[in-house]
Amino acid sequence: MKQNWWRSAYNHWVFKLGILMLLVGFGFRFHLSQSSSVIPNVSDNNFGTPFVTKNEKPIPSDFAESPKVLNRSYPKDDDESEKCDIFHGEWIPNSGEAPYTNNTCRWIESDQNCMSNGRPDTGYLHWRWSPKACELPPFDAKKFLEMMRGKTWGFVGDSITRNHLQSFICLLSQVEDAVEFFHDKDYKNRKWHFPSYNLTVSVIWSPFLAKAETFEDINHIPSSEIQLHVDILDKTWTQQFDTWDYVMFSSGKWFVRTAIYYENNTILGCHGCEGKNYTDLGFNFAYQKVINNLFDFIMNSNKQSTIIFRTSTPDHFENGPWSNGGTCDRRVPAKEGEFELGILNRILREVELPEFAKAKASEKGKKLKLLDVMPLSLVRPDGHPGPYRYFYPFAKDKKAKVQYDCLHWCLPGPIDQWNDLLMKLVVDD
C-alpha cells in the first residue's frame, strides 16, 4: 500500500515537472522570436558607405539559417550546364604585368590611385582569378570595343559602381583613350565616348536605385535621416534607360543607413530611427522592395537591353571598424574560409539572389545576367587602398593615425578582374 502511494506521488511530480519544462521551452522560443525582429542599425561614414553597427541586435529569423548563402546556386542560362562556373575558383599567382598603370590611365580617381598615393608594395597586382573547372580569358579591350561598335553602356549605382566603371574605362583606354563629353558639377554623373568605335559609356550616381533625399554636409556627416521612397525608382536613370544597350545595376550598402521609408508618399516605417514613433522595418525590407521594383521596371520596359546585376561586395576591416582604428594591411589573398560573409552582406545577399532568380524565371525575352563578384572579392583583403586613399599618408610621420578605406579597391587591382567576368558574360551572350 505504501509502495503504491509512493509510486503514484512520484509519477504525479514527474508529470508536473515535464509540463513545467515544456512551458519554459515554449517561453524561451517565443522570447527569441520576438527579439530577432529587428536587424542591426548601422551608422554612416566618410566613404559614403556604412561599415560599423550601432546597438547591434539579432538578425531576423528569416536570415538566421543561411550559412551557405555565399555559395547558393543562382539561375543559369539554358546551356549553362555546358559551361564552367566562372564565379567560383581561386586566386593563383600571375607573373604578368597589370593591364594599365596610373601613368597609362588618366581616369583613376585619387582615392583609389594607390600607386600615385605611395603604396609601396605591388604584390596585390600579381594574382589572377582561376575558375575551378575552366579558364577565364583576360579582358580583351580590342575585341570588346569591336563587339561594342555603335553601342551604349550605363553603369548605375553607388561609389563601388563608380570604382568599377573607372576600371572598365581604364582597360578600354589602353586601346583608345576615352573622351569625356559630360559631367555634372560633382562628377558623379559622367559620360565618355570612344570615337573610333562609336561606343558611349555612362555612369549614373544612384546609390538606392530609388528616389531618395539625403541630408549631409561636405564631409558626408548626416544632419537628418534619409527619406527613401521604396515605390519610386530614381528618375536620374529611368529617364535614360531606353538609351542604353547594356546596363549594369548594383546597390546595397547605402540601405543600411538610417532612413525613413515612404510608399505612396506615406511613411511606412524606418530603419534605425531611434527616438521616433515609427516601426523599425529593417533595411532588408526596403532593399527587397526596391530590387523587386527594379526588375518589374525592366520586365515591363520596351527596350531590349542586356541587363547585368552585380551583387554587393565585402569590406575587410580588421582590428576594429572604419571609425575606430579598423585596418586592412594584408599583402596576399586570404585562404578560402578565412573571411566569413558578415551579417550585413549576408542579409543583402539573401535579398539579391532570390530576387534575381525570380526575375530570371520570368525573363519575358529579356537578357538578364548575374555578375556575382562576392566570392572572388571576399578573399582579396589585400586589394583595398587602406591608408593609401590619401597621398603619401606616412611621409611626415610613419606612425600617423590614418582612416583606412577597406571597402573600395585600388586601381589597378583585383577589381579589374570583375571585367574579365563581365566580358565572359557578354561574349557568351
Helices and strands in order:
Layout: H1 2-35, E1 41-42, E2 53-54, H2 61-64, E3 89-93, E4 127-131, H3 141-147, E5 152-157, H4 159-172, E6 179-183, E7 190-194, E8 199-205, E9 210-213, E10 226-233, H5 235-238, E11 246-249, E12 259-263, E13 266-271, H6 283-299, E14 306-310, H7 343-361, E15 367-371, H8 374-378, H9 416-427
Parallel strand pairs: 5-8, 5-11, 10-12, 11-14, 14-15
Antiparallel strand pairs: 1-2, 3-4, 6-7, 7-8, 9-10, 12-13
Helix pairs in contact: 6-7
Specify the helix fraction band. Answer: 25-40%
Would you list the SSEs in sequence order as H and E? HEEHEEHEHEEEEEHEEEHEHEHH
How large is the count of helical segments? 9
Biggest sheet: strands side by side, in what order?
A: 6-7-8-5-11-14-15
C-alpha geometry: globular
Structural class: alpha/beta
Average pLDDT number: 83
Number of strands: 15
Span of the ends, CA to CA? 87 Å
- How would a textbook summarize the main sheet? 7 strands, mixed
Question: In what range is the share of β-strand residues?
Answer: 15-25%
Computed over alpha carbons, the radius of gyration is: 25 Å
Low-pLDDT stretches are 1-69
